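#struct-help
A.M.: can someone run this one for me? Single chain, 233 residues.
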Amino acid sequence: AGPDHCPGVEFLPLYRAEHYDGMSAPVIDAQPLDIAFVGRIEANKGVLDLVEIARRLRMGSGDCRFHICGTGSAEDALRQQIAAHGLEGMFRLYGWCDRDRLRAVMGRCQLGIVPTRRDFIEGFNQVVVETILSGRPAIVSDICPAVNYLADSVTVVRAGDTQGYVRAIQKLAQDRDRLARHVAACHAESRPFLDEALSFGAALDRVFAALRDGRPVVPRAIPVRSGGQTVSR
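D.P.: on it. C-alpha cells below:
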C-alpha cells in the first residue's frame, strides 16, 4: 500500500464473563465422548462431513456422539444421511437453541467442533471462541481465523479433511490426559476475549483520540498464538 496508508487497528470480539459463569466443567472420562456443533446446518459449514466422520469413527475405535445445535437448508439432508448409515445413536439434533438451552447442551459435552469447508467465505467464527469460553476445547478447520488467537485449546484440521477430524477425535477419546490439558488451556486463552481494552469500542476510542489530538494512531498489539496443534493428512 506504500508509505501513506492508514494503520490497521486490530480488535477482538468482546464477551461478557457472566454469560459463561457457572458452566460445569467437562467430565473428562465420560463415555462416549460428546462433541457439540453449533451453527447453521449447511453443507459448506461442514455439518454433513460429520456423518462421514461418525461413520469412520464407528468402524474404528472412537466412541463419540455429536450434538447439533442449529437449523439450516441442509437439515433434511443431514437427517437422511444419518438414517441411511444407521448412525442415529451417534447424533442428537436440537434445532435452534436459546442461551439456556445451548448452555445445557454444551454442559453435556467435552468438545466442540467447527468443520467449516474451504468453499465457505469464513469470517472470524465466534463459535470457536464461545466454545473455549465454555471451558471446552475445539477441533477447528484451518480456514477459521480465530485459531490464530488460540493455541493449546484448539486442534486445527485442514478444511475438508474428514480423516484428519477422525484422528483428532480419536486422540482425545483415547488419551484423556491430553483432553484434560486442552481443557485446562481454555481458561487462560479465553481471557483476551473478556478484556474491554482489546474490544472494538476501545479501538474506536484510540482512533478518535488520535484524530482529536492530531497525532498518528498507535494500534495496540494483540498477541497471536501458535494457532493450535495441527493435524496433518
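A.M.: thanks! The first strand starts at residue 33 and ends at 38.
D.P.: also worth noting: The mean pLDDT is 92.
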